[in-house]
Amino acid sequence: MNLWCATREGVSRYDPGTGYWTTYLSGGGRFLTDIHSIGVTDDRRLFFEGSTGVAIFDLMRNIWTTPESSGRLLSSSAGYVRWYGARERLLYNYPLFHTDLDYVFNPPESIMDKNAYAYPITSFQEDTFANVWISTWGLNIGKGSLRSLQLDMYRIGLASRNVTSMLFDGDLIWFGSASPLLDFGGFSPLQTMQESGSITRFNTVTGVWDYILPHETDGLPVGSINTMVADTSEVWIGTDNGIAVLDKSEKLWTPLPVQDLTTPDITTLGLSPTHLWIGTTTGLNRMDRHSRVIMPVPAPAILNLWIHDIAISRQETVWIATNQGVYRRSRRGKWQKIEDPDTANLNGAVFEIEMDNDDVWFGIRTALLKYDRKTGDWQTYSIPLSVGDGPLQIYVTVQSV
User: Residue 134 and residue 125: Cα distance in Å, rounded?
Assistant: First the structure.
């Protein structure tokens, strides 16, 4: 017997024999996102209903179909389908499971955490090992033992699906996010219960997920996590409500004073051995890492510009991408506007800068530009697709992807 879980990002299948999860993002020509109901039939078929319609997984043939392609149309009152999730009327016929002090179990409506946030329960399912699996919106999944009557909550995956920044830090991957407004499969709107600004940390060696939430973490500002940088001793995060730093050895978060910033709305950070460069929606700031003193950068050319990205070379030359082009600061403090002599591509908004040995890459809406610092040569690579109006990011690797 396998456990099937429907999430907002896809459908996952758990095999207890192997301990492995398999995730399906589409099936039968339909996206398996926003699935709100799972149906089971006696002839070993599973129905997944979401915002794009119904997809069917045939357990006997191990294939995906749709009601139309299988020749068996599905009506909302199809009696041969046993529904779970939004189509199921939640009838709770199990004991009132005990929880630890972090949760309050209130079936069939919700599970409440220690901060009095109530997470709606979406379905119950009993397995063959005397466990009742309880799915929720926002708190992942719980397992209630019919033997011990204990309910344990399991956290796995991202704290929020709205990932706004990523950081690769040795064996760790950090995901910064903001929590958007969710809607419950087209039925009733629900606000996500995590405060905006959640951080998920994944250890690629141990496979352990850790969660850093503002209402559980002293020193972490409440706000969308817009950017993260790190070295061997510290992790710095920038939010739309200020900056905080994690001391890796002490495991303590410390917020920075925001009164000296041009604005607390942080867009990007750049880290050098001596300074933290702070980009905001209204200009550039620089902090001395030893004294923690923050000063706005007074260069007239970049005053009040929206700083999209910062890159720092090994020689501590600072490059910034702004809403009005690219600027470079030499080690002596002289600022210079960078332009492609062959095109006007760098005269408008530039969203991303990446350093790759002698090359500097720039990202704009319609193209990638590469500048060779040794030869002074420029190359332009057109982007053959629309990247929309959202944030644009570039990752440069040593191998082709």
Answer: 7
